[in-house]
Design goal:
Helix content: 40-55%
Low-confidence stretches: 1-20
Shape: globular
CATH architecture: Alpha/alpha barrel
Distance between the termini: 55 Å
Number of strands: 7
Number of domains: 1
Structural class: mainly alpha
Strand content: under 5%
Largest sheet: 3 strands, antiparallel
CATH class: Mainly Alpha
């Protein structure tokens, strides 16, 4: 038997306790929803709880003759990127569709609905004509030359659109998916608004499908920030499935069935799910659709979708014989260096929903490495969530604001500078760099609920504003975590998206 000195024993005990710690998922859920208020652009409501923020971007779209005030900043900068913003709203809506009762039980349903509506209200403005979508405000190149609070912006606020001559199928289809998913969310509480969202979703899907083209070719300034590596076919399938969920119109179901092979939905075996590569989400949604009353051919194709969805889930569980998602020594899923936790949180929503589905239909997952029950999937989801909340080798919560330790130097312009409400003294472009970015002190404002990029492959994390690959947070990181936290916090039985 190996011998340990007393210090080693103490370290082993503390490590064991840290990794078995129980977290307050309800508190984390509340904080995750608060984060979206910090990312708001436009005129803030009187109910605004993040008091260090103030109105910003009030002239957005004016130069182009369109009202583009509102929406969200995607991360720590001041650009409104349409593709990740729409994806954020799709994920938030999926979270509410799947876990409405749990979110309501935590007293956060109204907050979640407000977060979704802040985005969809903006999309309505950004879609003034059936075949026109304003897809971006500001540009990353000029924005990244300055370090200014959003309230002080002096950088370009030029707006960029896609239309028939300059198509953008990715952003049109993702916005359609967001509005279709949100229409389900509001179908009972705001039926007129729900129908309006659905009308926009239908038009946007038709636009994206009929006038096909990569949005980063029509808007070249986005290439350095949100380029479309996977193309637009995954977004078209994704939008079709959400429209089918929202309308029960077989036209959209048949679209996903007929294009499953040629668009890669039933052929691509994927080991990530993100704002760009949506195949795993497409495959999971399709796999959870009911098969009653469907043709044999449709059932066959749905089975192919299911096979690919389960490949992804097995890859996350390390149950494939070939392709699996890497893991850090501490057990965290690891896809790539830049903002790795987006892939973790996005994937956890897929796994959580699919765990519910398997429980509902009383089936198991058959991976190459063995049979997996829904309980094992949910247990894995919990372990990854606990890692995020602090059960990790660094002892750091990567969800900002969750005690006892979290990143204090998040790469975020507004959080890193004195609050505009405390000091309305204008902060210039370069002044922000010298006075705030270069400071070693913690940010004066806590970006509560932000899920930062997280640790590297070896569980190492350096809390520095310059380490933006690890300390910058994005809206789509937190959006998917809302549903996961609601599930872990809620007492209600498992249920399937296919039966909602």
């Amino acid at each position: 038997m190996p011998k340990y000195n007393s210090l080693v024993v103490v370290i082993l005990i503390l490590t064991t306790l840290a990794f078995s710690e129980s977290f307050n998922y309800g508190d984390a859920l509340s904080k995750s929803l608060l984060y979206f208020e910090a990312q708001r652009s436009g005129r803030l409501p009187h109910t605004q709880r993040v008091k260090w923020r103030d109105n910003s971007g009030l002239l957005d779209g004016l130069e182009q003759g369109v009202d583009l005030v509102g929406g969200y900043y995607d991360a720590g900068d001041n650009v409104k990127f349409g593709l990740p913003m729409a994806y954020t709203i799709t994920l938030l809506s999926w979270s509410v569709v799947q876990y409405r009762d749990e979110i309501g039980g935590a007293g956060e349903l109204d907050t979640a609905l407000e977060a979704i509506k802040w985005g969809t209200d903006y999309f309505i403005k950004a879609h003034p004509q059936p075949h026109v979508l304003w897809a971006q405000v500001g540009d990353g190149d000029t924005d990244h030359l300055c370090w200014q609070r959003p309230e002080d912006m002096t950088t370009s606020r030029r707006a960029y659109k896609v239309d028939e001559e300059n198509p953008g199928s990715e952003v049109a289809a993702e916005t359609a998916a967001a509005m279709a998913a949100a229409s389900i969310v509001f179908s009972e509480t705001k039926p007129h608004y729900s129908r309006l969202l659905l009308e926009h979703a239908i038009q946007l899907f038709e636009f994206g499908d009929k006038f096909r083209g990569r949005y980063d070719e029509s808007i070249p300034v986005v290439k350095g920030y949100y380029p479309s590596a996977s193309g637009y076919k995954d977004e078209l399938l994704w939008a079709a499935l959400w429209l089918y969920k929202a309308t029960n119109n077989l036209t959209y179901f048949n679209y996903a069935i007929q294009n499953g092979d040629s668009f890669g939905g039933t052929t691509w075996a994927i080991a990530e799910f993100s704002w760009d590569v949506k195949y795993a989400g497409v495959q999971a949604i399709a796999a959870m659709l009911p098969t009653e009353g469907k043709s044999e051919e449709a059932k066959k194709i749905l089975k192919q979708y299911r096979s690919k969805a389960e490949f992804y889930i097995c890859a996350c569980l390390n149950k494939n014989n070939s392709t699996n998602v890497k893991r850090s020594p501490g057990g965290l899923l690891y896809t790539r260096r830049w903002n790795n936790l987006q892939y973790v949180s996005n994937g956890l929503l897929v796994l959580t929903a699919y765990s519910d589905h398997l429980s509902w239909i009383n089936q198991s997952l058959e991976c190459e490495g063995g049979v997996v029950g829904w309980q094992e999937i949910l247990s894995f989801v919990k372990s990854q969530t606990d890692y995020i909340l602090g059960a990790n080798p660094m002892g750091v919560s990567y969800l900002v604001g969750v005690e006892p330790s979290y990143p204090k130097r998040v790469h975020h312009r507004g959080a890193s500078a004195v609050s505009y409400r405390d000091s309305k003294v204008f902060v210039g472009c370069m002044q922000g760099y010298y006075n705030w970015l270069l400071r070693e002190a913690p940010n004066p404002n806590v970006l509560v609920g932000a899920l930062v990029g997280g640790p590297d492959l070896y569980d190492h994390f350096r809390d520095s504003r310059f380490n933006f690959a690890q300390t910058e947070a994005c809206t789509y990181n937190t959006a998917s975590l809302v549903g996961v936290l609601a599930k872990l916090n809620g007492p209600t039985p498992n249920k399937s998206l296919s039966h909602k």
